[in-house]
User: Which sequence fits this backbone?
């Protein structure tokens, strides 16, 4: 069961890198759609950076709520919005990739987080029902 | 067309940011309240908060990209 934030983030990172490898393979296999795959790669990298930054901010807010930590807490949305904007600018001005691909790629880490969260909730419910029946004892 | 595209960009990012602000406030407030009451549940609550905030914030980031596309077409 993934109750630890760092373990959850490690799994999200693994899933995102798996998606990136699929994108690079498709880039090589389908050269006609390189602008789409390139946009997806840039958006996915930005999405992973956003997820890592968000995890750091969530951890600092949790530490502050638990009694430790100093400074003014914030979620840092402006930084993540600027990272998304930077990904669009890099993809369109530097490499001439499709901006629609970047928009789809920006959702990859969040989608991985959603799927992993649902999977964790289902697994937790199944483990609890096994505990109540005494099958884990 | 140009002015309408600018209005569309403003609306899409403004409404996305408004929804994300309300959602983030609710999530962070309840999580901080829960951690203050039961600090031993910090790991579980932080993971739930991470999932919730990641989902809530995906919308304004994508709306920012959409606004950028509208702005480019204006």
Assistant:
């Amino acid at each position: 069961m993934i109750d630890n934030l760092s373990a959850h983030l490690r799994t999200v990172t693994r899933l995102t890198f798996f998606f990136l490898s699929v994108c690079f393979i498709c880039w090589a296999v389908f050269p006609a759609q390189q602008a789409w795959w390139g946009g997806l790669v840039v958006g996915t990298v930005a999405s992973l950076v956003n997820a890592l930054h968000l995890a750091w901010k969530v951890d600092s807010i949790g530490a502050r709520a638990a009694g430790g930590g100093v400074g003014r807490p914030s979620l840092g949305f402006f930084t993540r919005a600027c990272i998304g904007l930077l990904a669009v600018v890099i993809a369109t001005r530097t490499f001439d990739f499709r901006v629609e691909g970047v928009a789809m790629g920006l959702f990859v880490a969040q989608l991985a987080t959603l799927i992993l969260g649902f999977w964790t909730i289902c697994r937790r419910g199944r483990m609890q029902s096994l505990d109540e029946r005494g099958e884990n004892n | 067309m140009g002015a309408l595209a600018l209005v569309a960009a403003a609306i899409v990012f403004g409404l996305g940011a408004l929804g994300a602000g309300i959602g983030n406030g609710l999530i962070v407030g309840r999580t901080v309240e829960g951690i203050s009451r039961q600090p031993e549940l910090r790991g579980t609550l932080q993971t739930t908060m991470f999932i919730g905030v990641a989902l809530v914030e995906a919308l304004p980031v994508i709306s920012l990209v959409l606004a950028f596309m509208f702005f480019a077409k204006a």
